[in-house]
Amino acid sequence: MTEPDFLVLTTTHDDQAAARALAASLVRDRLAACAQVYPVESVYWWDGEVQNTTEWRIDLKTRADLADRLTARIAELHPYDTPEVVAVPVVAGSPAYLAWLTAETAV
Predict the structure, then answer these.
(1) What does the pLDDT average to over 59-77?
(2) Domains observed in the chain
(3) What rounded mean pLDDT belongs to the chain?
(4) Residue 106 pLDDT greater than 70, yes or no
């Protein structure tokens, strides 16, 4: 299997304004071409118990070769001890959109 050229990398934040600011910073840094911020209900194990919180999910569209840099930048900017950072490969897409994504992440 070949490596994907593009990814959707996801992180979350507990504050809407901070999530938007993080998304804008990552796009401004050209590590992602686009970010979508939307509310989600998260249920997870943390500090020895099940947590249930509203978080703001940030989906970042990026080139696969930027994943390590994007992950490192999230770690620098994020207040969580262990921020979620997961990536899903883009296996197909509009050629025009993928060309735009490539152009907008030219760092």
Answers:
(1) 97
(2) 6-104 (3.30.70.120)
(3) 94
(4) yes
55 near 12, Cβ under 8 Å? Answer: yes
CB 8 within 8 A of CB 90: yes
At residue 43, the 3 state secondary structure works out as: strand
Find out whether 33 and 106 touch, Cβ atoms under 8 Å: no
| Residue pair 46/57 in contact by the 8 Å Cβ criterion | no
Distance CA 10, CA 84 (A): 7
> How many Å apart are CA 12 and CA 59, to the nearest integer?
9
Coarse DSSP helix, strand, coil percentages of the chain, rounded to the nearest 5 percent: 35, 40, 25
The percentage of the chain sitting over the pLDDT mark of 70, rounded to a whole number, equals 97
